[in-house]
Every structure is written in C-alpha cells, then in structure tokens.
Amino acid sequence: QVQLVESGGGLVQPGGSLSLSCAISGIIFNSDTMGWYRQAPGKQRELVAEIRSGGIINYADSVKGRFSISRGNVATVFLQMNSLKPEDTAIYYCNVRRAYMNFWGQGTQVTVSS
User: Fold this and answer.
1) What is the 3 state secondary structure string of the chain?
2) How is residue 99 annotated by DSSP?
3) How many CB atoms lie within 10 A of CB 67?
4) Are 57 and 69 a contacting pair, CB within 8 Å?
5) Which of 8, 52, 91, 111 could be a cystine partner for 56, CB 3.0 to 4.6 Å?
6) Is the pLDDT of residue 114 over 80?
7) Range name among 29-33, 64-68, 108-112 with the lowest pLDDT average
C-alpha cells in the first residue's frame, strides 16, 4: 500500500508562483510513475506532469515552460508552478501509478485569482 500527502497549495495572484510537495510512504518501485494531476470544477481530472522510470518527464501542453516536476529523495515529488494563470485553478493531486494500480493523495487546492 502507498500513501500520499500533498501540501503547498493556496491562493496566489496571476503571474505568481507556488510549490507543491508530495510526501510518499509505503513501498515504491523503480518502475513506478509519479506525477501530478488536477481537477477543476466541472471538468475531468487531467495529467499535469509525470516522471516515468528512467527519468522521462511529460508535461501537459498547457503547463509546458511554466511548471516543473522533480523528485527529492525516493519518497517526495515536487511541482514548481510559475507564471500561474486563473485557468490553473484546481485541486491538485499527487499520483503513483504502476501496472494495474493507481494511488492518490487527498489533493490540495490551488486558486489563482486577483
């Protein structure tokens, strides 16, 4: 079993920055994919960024050049968000994905508003 706890959300003005952290406990495999998703009101949950085994990183087109995903030690994942826009407002979820299984955190709210 894997548990994930996000932190770092909040209210920020357009153009500002926020850094999200995900603390992961449990058994992690080198083959796991770790990532961040978000869900805005009335919309489906979507991939924001992910790190695959071997260090391959993918970003949603909407955040390329503005967001950066990284791993600390084995048990932490970060999402640095710069040049935030109102459309980035959503609940952000940390995710660990492996064959046939997905693990989710409880989510952290990010609101971009003046």
Assistant:
1) CEEEEEECCEEECCCCCEEEEEEEEECCCCCCEEEEEEECCCCCCEEEEEECHHHCEEECHHHCCCEEEEECCCCEEEEEECCCCHHHCEEEEEEEEECCEEEECCCEEEEECC
2) T
3) 21
4) yes
5) 52
6) yes
7) 29-33
